[in-house]
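Quick illustration for those who missed Monday's session on complexes.
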Amino acid sequence: MEVGKTSQEYHEATSLALLNGDDMEEIGLEENDVVKISSGQSSVVVRCQKGWIDPGQVFMPLGPWANHLVAWTTSGTGMPSYKGIDVDISATEEKPTSFEDLFVDRESMSAALADMPRLEAPPEVPEGDQADQLTLGNVVCPFCGCLCDDIELLLKDGKIADAIVGCELSRSRFMNWNKDRVKPAVRKNGKLVEVELEEALDRAAEILKNADYPLIYGMSTTDVDAQRKAVELGEVLGATVDNTTSVCHGPTTIAAQDTGVSKLTLGEVRNRADLVIYWGCNPSEAHVRHVTRYATTPQGMYTEKGREDRAVIHVDVRETKTAKANQRWHFTYQLADKLIKVKPGQDYELFSALRARLRGHEVGDVAGVSAREIDSLLNKMKSCKFGVIFFGLGLTMSSGRHMNIDCVLRLVRDLNEHTKFTILPMRGHYNVAGANHVMLWLTGYPYAVNLSRGYPVYNPGEFSAVDVLGRQECDAALVIASDPAAHFPAQSAEHLSRIPTVVMDPKVSMTALMAEVVLPTAIAGIESDGTAYRMDGVPIRMRKVVDSEFEPDSAILEKLIERVKN
Ligand code: SF4
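Prediction with iron/sulfur cluster bound:
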């Protein structure tokens, strides 16, 4: 959502719980009533709505309200248990938990939201034909890991007036590019005040230089040049450097290091895949054009009839939009042929059952899936010509974490004794894959690296940002192009608000509201060019499409490095 995490729209979308209709009736709840949800960690009061989920389950969108219920501990993996948390739910007369209620330092958070130095709202793009109207084709969309490179932009007076071809997420990204932009700011007397960029850089360098245990985190929505500079700064500082992988596909990385992985490109999927399985992910809402551009409807070299030539199966704990009929422009299509509902937290058991059955062992019903359905799925897997499993955070964020992935990677390896089978994680932020590549080139490890000894030490669970913050070890942080305050468990986010934090971001974010220094940057892929890695590891060159008064992340980081060295 590109209208910003401090917007009313974001608050409404994330302060919400979806319940099963029968459960709501039993508790005596109507649509949009408030409920109190309590975990071992904390409790929040939010609105509830009917969702497509089984009795006994509740779904909350990832955001500050859900994060309040999540413990920061990661069992040595870097990934908190965002899913499968035991909660109590009750009807309540209490007021819904407000944004300010979620933070320890309520006053400064709400004051920062009101006082944050921002660019004035951009002038409206003029209507009608203009002499300086320009259409740009083949623009790369810097939003999700699909990195679609066929976006068409209409520019008027040097501003983006329209974005076509891409999905709703892409359109929102481009059309809101100039909204909620921050200016250089430094906290003085408890308040963020606008300063010259040089002053903000000086203060940021001072904070980082004086820290005993600095943390550099983020990097998933910027280009590879900035990622290189971030690691260089980490080396100069002797910092811990982590990227957002630790809270998305970190467990995938751990499992791949253990088991190995059968890789592929999205071009191969488009041209060859006749069986596509979406497991624990919801492309209809998170990677909208993944289905139309690469995996289900497009016609390929050996999939000439497009959707007709493919079987599509969706495995999830709930009936997401991916399992339903989807509308795109003027046509409706059924994305998945079949939904297989697995019990929450039991994917590992289902993968194990499929492996056992593949070896000829008898299995009964497993994880809520009947033995017959397991056989039917396995037969489809064995008999396809080219199969692929796309998987998401449904596997990495539940209790099995890397063991879920380990088991499915082994299943894919076993299937290759029968046919060609591959697997790919659905990467969320458009260049989180790039952050892994860059850290691998430079340090030998993809994330969670400590550079304080003069050489890289890798250890998810020790050097991942959630752990470092949760244990209250770091005494300063530099957050680059990400928003951990909106995504981390509350206790980790709270430590971020207690230490001096420098935020590099083009827009207002929750982390910026708690920052000591805010350094505005150009938006990579819109206001500056650069390279990003698609979810399948293919590097794509992004274009600069409009001018900016701000400098790219890499230039700001270069200036920080100079200051820290001197
Ligand atoms: S699928 Fe992702 S990369 Fe493609 S247009 Fe939509 S948001 Fe952009």
